Amino acid sequence: MREIGRLRLKGRILKRVAILPALLTLGNGISGFTSVVQASRDHLEAASWLIFLGMIFDALDGKVARMTKVASNFGAQLDSLCDAITFGLAPAFLALKVVSTPRALVDANFVWMVCALYLSCAILRLARFTVETSPDETAHEEFKGLPSPGAAGVVASFVLICPDFAKTPSTVLSDTLQRLLPFAVLVAGLLMISRLRYVHMVNRLFRGHRPFASLIEVLLVVLLIALNPQMTLFLAFFGYAAVGPFRYLRSRWFPRPANAPEAGPGAGAEEEEELI
User: What is the model's pTM?
Assistant: First the structure.
């Protein structure tokens, strides 16, 4: 009976301490749900920005949980469920709405299959991450496969370039983007379930002491976002998605000598892993 009482007390303490990370995680899920609602009403730009709002909540919840030492399996499961909404369902539905305009230029069945595949890949990616991850801060330096927020950023930033596909007159740019979007969604989905290495940008930039040049780089990115947020986010997320294939091809074409020192986490033999 005494042991049962201790377990109950521990459960009550955990609920009180972990409330802030849980609320941040739920903020992520609510952002994704609201994005779906806005996309269903053809407010495509608002739906895209809500996905980025979900990314802010997603970046904060895990960081707060690890800083306060309340990271738990419950938090990991909750995070994956909310990520599946914000970075799986919301981008897939947004892409479907963008391409399914009155002047649709891509076959509707193909678009549906691509979006369904993207959603499936996002769910598989999150399930794999939940199984393989650990609360240790050092386990969050790199990802295996494109993170689901990165894939969602590819889709959302693509839409921000020309958000009013259904309203703007047909132009070469809007028609080209509408034709390319399903292929961008397809590639982003496949990159999520790959084993390609991706750096955790938030942890790399804000963990510990960084060189003064890092501060300048962050300020430069903030300035570019302020001047032209749509194009900056578009280039940033597409560039980040391209890093994984680039590193893989570089390791294949220019293998590191056996006696060369490792460049950091994920370097060396780990980069030789299979794609899937």
Answer: 0.80
